[in-house]
Structure prediction request, 213 residues.
Amino acid sequence: MKDTNKHQGLRNQLVKQLEDKGITDKNVLAAIGKIPRHLFLDSSFENFAYQDKAFPIEAGQTISQPYTVAFQTQLLEVEKDHKILEIGTGSGYQTAVLCLMGAKVYSVERQNKLFKVTSNLLPKLHIRPKFLSFGDGYKGLPDYAPFDSIIVTAGAPFIPQPLMAQLKVGGRLVIPVGEKEQIMTLLIRKNETQFEKHEFGDFRFVPLLENKN
Ligand code: SAH
Prediction:
Protein backbone atom coordinates (compact mmCIF):
# COMPACT_ATOMS: atom_id res chain seq x y z
CA MET A 1 0.00 0.00 0.00
CA LYS A 2 2.82 2.38 -0.83
CA ASP A 3 2.42 5.56 -2.83
CA THR A 4 5.69 7.34 -3.56
CA ASN A 5 6.95 10.50 -5.26
CA LYS A 6 7.80 8.35 -8.26
CA HIS A 7 4.15 7.29 -8.55
CA GLN A 8 3.07 10.93 -8.24
CA GLY A 9 5.45 11.88 -11.04
CA LEU A 10 4.00 9.17 -13.29
CA ARG A 11 0.45 10.32 -12.44
CA ASN A 12 1.31 13.90 -13.41
CA GLN A 13 2.52 12.60 -16.78
CA LEU A 14 -0.68 10.58 -17.24
CA VAL A 15 -2.78 13.68 -16.52
CA LYS A 16 -0.79 15.61 -19.11
CA GLN A 17 -1.42 12.85 -21.70
CA LEU A 18 -5.17 12.92 -20.98
CA GLU A 19 -5.20 16.70 -21.47
CA ASP A 20 -3.38 16.23 -24.79
CA LYS A 21 -6.04 13.69 -25.81
CA GLY A 22 -8.79 16.28 -25.21
CA ILE A 23 -9.95 15.84 -21.60
CA THR A 24 -10.81 19.31 -20.26
CA ASP A 25 -12.81 18.73 -17.04
CA LYS A 26 -10.42 20.02 -14.35
CA ASN A 27 -12.09 18.02 -11.60
CA VAL A 28 -11.69 14.77 -13.55
CA LEU A 29 -8.01 15.53 -14.16
CA ALA A 30 -7.45 16.47 -10.51
CA ALA A 31 -9.00 13.19 -9.32
CA ILE A 32 -6.89 11.10 -11.71
CA GLY A 33 -3.85 13.06 -10.54
CA LYS A 34 -4.49 11.93 -6.96
CA ILE A 35 -5.63 8.30 -7.19
CA PRO A 36 -2.91 5.63 -6.75
CA ARG A 37 -3.96 3.49 -9.75
CA HIS A 38 -1.10 1.05 -9.08
CA LEU A 39 -2.89 -0.06 -5.90
CA PHE A 40 -5.97 -1.10 -7.93
CA LEU A 41 -3.89 -3.54 -10.00
CA ASP A 42 -2.04 -6.76 -9.33
CA SER A 43 1.45 -5.83 -8.12
CA SER A 44 2.97 -7.42 -11.25
CA PHE A 45 1.51 -4.50 -13.24
CA GLU A 46 2.84 -1.84 -10.88
CA ASN A 47 5.39 -0.52 -13.37
CA PHE A 48 2.74 -0.06 -16.05
CA ALA A 49 -0.09 1.32 -13.90
CA TYR A 50 0.25 4.88 -15.21
CA GLN A 51 0.27 3.96 -18.87
CA ASP A 52 -2.95 4.92 -20.60
CA LYS A 53 -4.02 1.29 -20.97
CA ALA A 54 -6.60 -1.19 -19.69
CA PHE A 55 -5.27 -4.14 -17.64
CA PRO A 56 -6.69 -7.49 -16.51
CA ILE A 57 -8.12 -7.73 -12.96
CA GLU A 58 -9.83 -10.63 -11.11
CA ALA A 59 -12.45 -12.85 -12.73
CA GLY A 60 -11.41 -12.17 -16.34
CA GLN A 61 -12.45 -8.50 -16.08
CA THR A 62 -10.49 -5.32 -16.83
CA ILE A 63 -9.70 -2.00 -15.21
CA SER A 64 -10.72 0.54 -17.85
CA GLN A 65 -8.15 2.64 -19.69
CA PRO A 66 -7.66 6.01 -17.92
CA TYR A 67 -8.71 7.87 -21.08
CA THR A 68 -11.99 5.92 -21.13
CA VAL A 69 -12.60 6.62 -17.43
CA ALA A 70 -11.88 10.32 -18.01
CA PHE A 71 -14.04 10.50 -21.15
CA GLN A 72 -17.05 8.83 -19.52
CA THR A 73 -16.71 10.88 -16.33
CA GLN A 74 -16.46 14.13 -18.30
CA LEU A 75 -19.72 13.27 -20.08
CA LEU A 76 -21.45 12.88 -16.69
CA GLU A 77 -20.77 16.56 -15.80
CA VAL A 78 -20.28 15.59 -12.15
CA GLU A 79 -21.01 18.17 -9.48
CA LYS A 80 -20.31 17.91 -5.78
CA ASP A 81 -22.99 15.90 -3.94
CA HIS A 82 -24.42 14.45 -7.14
CA LYS A 83 -25.96 11.05 -6.47
CA ILE A 84 -24.41 8.71 -9.03
CA LEU A 85 -25.08 5.07 -9.90
CA GLU A 86 -22.21 3.07 -11.37
CA ILE A 87 -22.81 -0.32 -13.01
CA GLY A 88 -19.66 -2.49 -12.97
CA THR A 89 -17.59 -1.61 -9.88
CA GLY A 90 -14.72 -3.83 -11.06
CA SER A 91 -11.44 -2.66 -9.52
CA GLY A 92 -13.15 0.38 -7.97
CA TYR A 93 -10.94 2.83 -9.87
CA GLN A 94 -13.85 4.61 -11.60
CA THR A 95 -15.71 4.57 -8.25
CA ALA A 96 -12.71 6.32 -6.68
CA VAL A 97 -12.65 9.01 -9.38
CA LEU A 98 -16.32 9.81 -8.72
CA CYS A 99 -15.83 9.81 -4.92
CA LEU A 100 -12.88 12.20 -5.16
CA MET A 101 -15.04 14.54 -7.23
CA GLY A 102 -17.40 14.75 -4.25
CA ALA A 103 -20.18 12.55 -5.63
CA LYS A 104 -22.31 10.19 -3.56
CA VAL A 105 -21.59 6.93 -5.32
CA TYR A 106 -23.73 3.78 -5.48
CA SER A 107 -22.03 0.98 -7.40
CA VAL A 108 -23.13 -2.50 -8.48
CA GLU A 109 -20.89 -5.50 -9.34
CA ARG A 110 -22.03 -8.99 -10.36
CA GLN A 111 -18.73 -10.87 -9.79
CA ASN A 112 -18.60 -11.85 -6.14
CA LYS A 113 -14.79 -12.06 -6.03
CA LEU A 114 -14.41 -8.51 -7.35
CA PHE A 115 -17.18 -7.23 -5.10
CA LYS A 116 -15.30 -8.57 -2.07
CA VAL A 117 -11.80 -7.48 -3.11
CA THR A 118 -12.95 -3.95 -3.96
CA SER A 119 -15.18 -3.58 -0.88
CA ASN A 120 -12.07 -4.35 1.14
CA LEU A 121 -9.66 -2.13 -0.82
CA LEU A 122 -11.54 1.19 -0.99
CA PRO A 123 -11.77 1.89 2.78
CA LYS A 124 -8.04 1.20 3.09
CA LEU A 125 -7.50 4.04 0.63
CA HIS A 126 -9.99 6.23 2.56
CA ILE A 127 -12.40 6.16 -0.36
CA ARG A 128 -15.99 5.85 0.82
CA PRO A 129 -18.75 5.23 -1.69
CA LYS A 130 -22.27 5.46 -0.21
CA PHE A 131 -23.11 1.88 -1.14
CA LEU A 132 -21.42 -1.06 -2.88
CA SER A 133 -23.91 -3.68 -4.04
CA PHE A 134 -23.43 -7.27 -5.20
CA GLY A 135 -26.04 -7.90 -7.87
CA ASP A 136 -27.27 -7.44 -11.40
CA GLY A 137 -26.68 -3.98 -12.82
CA TYR A 138 -29.31 -4.46 -15.54
CA LYS A 139 -31.85 -3.80 -12.78
CA GLY A 140 -30.10 -0.70 -11.39
CA LEU A 141 -30.81 0.08 -7.73
CA PRO A 142 -34.53 0.94 -7.57
CA ASP A 143 -34.47 1.35 -3.77
CA TYR A 144 -32.00 4.24 -4.06
CA ALA A 145 -33.35 5.90 -7.24
CA PRO A 146 -33.58 8.49 -8.70
CA PHE A 147 -29.97 9.38 -9.58
CA ASP A 148 -28.42 12.59 -10.95
CA SER A 149 -26.43 10.42 -13.31
CA ILE A 150 -25.68 6.82 -14.18
CA ILE A 151 -22.47 5.38 -15.65
CA VAL A 152 -22.18 1.88 -17.10
CA THR A 153 -18.61 0.56 -17.36
CA ALA A 154 -19.30 -2.64 -19.34
CA GLY A 155 -20.47 -3.01 -22.95
CA ALA A 156 -24.28 -3.22 -23.02
CA PRO A 157 -26.05 -4.95 -25.95
CA PHE A 158 -28.93 -2.50 -25.40
CA ILE A 159 -29.84 0.29 -22.95
CA PRO A 160 -31.56 -1.36 -19.95
CA GLN A 161 -34.97 0.23 -19.38
CA PRO A 162 -34.68 0.21 -15.53
CA LEU A 163 -31.61 2.47 -15.78
CA MET A 164 -33.53 5.01 -17.86
CA ALA A 165 -36.38 4.88 -15.33
CA GLN A 166 -34.00 5.54 -12.41
CA LEU A 167 -32.60 8.77 -13.88
CA LYS A 168 -33.79 12.19 -12.61
CA VAL A 169 -35.25 14.61 -15.14
CA GLY A 170 -32.20 16.55 -16.40
CA GLY A 171 -29.98 13.59 -15.48
CA ARG A 172 -27.35 11.95 -17.68
CA LEU A 173 -26.81 8.27 -18.49
CA VAL A 174 -23.44 7.35 -20.03
CA ILE A 175 -23.33 3.84 -21.48
CA PRO A 176 -21.22 2.05 -24.10
CA VAL A 177 -23.72 0.30 -26.39
CA GLY A 178 -22.89 -2.62 -28.70
CA GLU A 179 -21.82 -6.25 -28.77
CA LYS A 180 -18.23 -6.53 -30.08
CA GLU A 181 -17.48 -2.82 -30.20
CA GLN A 182 -19.46 -0.18 -28.38
CA ILE A 183 -20.56 3.33 -29.25
CA MET A 184 -20.25 5.63 -26.27
CA THR A 185 -23.79 6.88 -25.77
CA LEU A 186 -25.12 9.76 -23.65
CA LEU A 187 -28.83 9.98 -22.84
CA ILE A 188 -30.12 13.16 -21.22
CA ARG A 189 -33.56 12.88 -19.64
CA LYS A 190 -35.69 15.79 -20.87
CA ASN A 191 -38.92 14.95 -19.01
CA GLU A 192 -40.88 11.93 -17.81
CA THR A 193 -41.02 10.34 -21.25
CA GLN A 194 -38.35 11.93 -23.47
CA PHE A 195 -34.60 11.35 -23.69
CA GLU A 196 -32.10 13.16 -25.91
CA LYS A 197 -29.44 10.86 -27.37
CA HIS A 198 -25.84 11.77 -28.28
CA GLU A 199 -23.26 9.36 -29.68
CA PHE A 200 -19.47 9.54 -29.37
CA GLY A 201 -16.75 7.30 -30.87
CA ASP A 202 -16.09 3.58 -30.65
CA PHE A 203 -14.77 1.94 -27.48
CA ARG A 204 -14.16 -1.64 -26.36
CA PHE A 205 -15.41 -2.98 -23.04
CA VAL A 206 -15.92 -6.38 -21.42
CA PRO A 207 -19.61 -7.31 -21.79
CA LEU A 208 -22.42 -6.34 -19.44
CA LEU A 209 -23.66 -9.84 -18.56
CA GLU A 210 -27.08 -10.99 -17.42
CA ASN A 211 -27.02 -12.11 -13.82
CA LYS A 212 -26.11 -15.71 -13.07
CA ASN A 213 -28.57 -15.94 -10.16
N1 SAH B 1 -15.20 0.48 -13.57
C1 SAH B 1 -14.39 -0.71 -13.62
C2 SAH B 1 -14.60 -1.43 -14.94
C3 SAH B 1 -14.55 -2.88 -14.75
S1 SAH B 1 -14.93 -3.83 -16.19
C4 SAH B 1 -12.93 -0.42 -13.41
O1 SAH B 1 -12.46 0.65 -13.82
O2 SAH B 1 -12.22 -1.26 -12.87
C5 SAH B 1 -16.69 -3.98 -16.08
C6 SAH B 1 -17.23 -4.59 -14.82
O3 SAH B 1 -18.64 -4.77 -15.01
C7 SAH B 1 -16.67 -5.97 -14.48
O4 SAH B 1 -16.18 -5.94 -13.17
C8 SAH B 1 -17.88 -6.90 -14.61
O5 SAH B 1 -17.88 -7.98 -13.69
C9 SAH B 1 -19.04 -5.94 -14.33
N2 SAH B 1 -20.33 -6.38 -14.84
C10 SAH B 1 -20.62 -7.04 -16.00
N3 SAH B 1 -21.94 -7.27 -16.10
C11 SAH B 1 -22.52 -6.72 -14.99
C12 SAH B 1 -23.86 -6.63 -14.49
N4 SAH B 1 -24.90 -7.15 -15.17
N5 SAH B 1 -24.07 -6.01 -13.32
C13 SAH B 1 -23.03 -5.49 -12.59
N6 SAH B 1 -21.76 -5.54 -13.01
C14 SAH B 1 -21.50 -6.15 -14.18
User: Anything to note?
Assistant: The helical segments are 5-20, 26-34, 66-76, 93-100, 112-124, 161-165.
